[in-house]
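Lab notes, practical 5.
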Amino acid sequence: MADIPDRRARRRAETQAEILGIALDVMAEEGVAGLSLATVARRLGIQPPSLYKYFPSRHAVYDALFRRGQEGYLEAVRRGAGAHEPGLAAMGASLEGGARWVMDHQVLAQLMFWRPVPGFAPSPESYAPALAVHEHFAALIRAAVARGELHPDAAGEEGLALAASLIAGPLSQQLSNEPGASYEEGRFTRLVPRLPAVFAAVYPPP
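Output from the prediction step:
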């Protein structure tokens, strides 16, 4: 009998994952803010009140998707840096890894990096991976400073804000203007490998 709670928990997790997958499909069709739980329930083959056993509100679905997206993005930037010593090269590889992930998960990226849903704010638990992403890049920039690749100011608050803005610009332009292009084909994603050099030009080593 001990495995019955485990089976129930597993079925619940599987149903939640299915709900999130359907929600992503609806968001891709109707826009991120156009998510309807009634539509999700209909596609899942259940009545809308039954959906609330798994997610108590529409914002709870957004929150779970936000967390899923941030965890995926964090894994992508960490994996990108994995083959390099910490520093500018690792930063560039991380930016590329993250940009490729964004192009492959555009609906999630809109939820994560823009504000398409009025009133939605992620929970602290769901926002935690985003903080880990910030610390990942901060650590790479500090390492680049230690290696003499960047000025120490690059690791300050303003420098970190500029680094985040550098990647946000090309990705926002790409998703706004050429969402159907591949990473390699995109007019703006092709600029991502140049970003570390741009950053270093603003913060040249002393």
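Observations recorded by the TA: The first helix runs from residue 3 to 30. The chain has nine helices and no strands.
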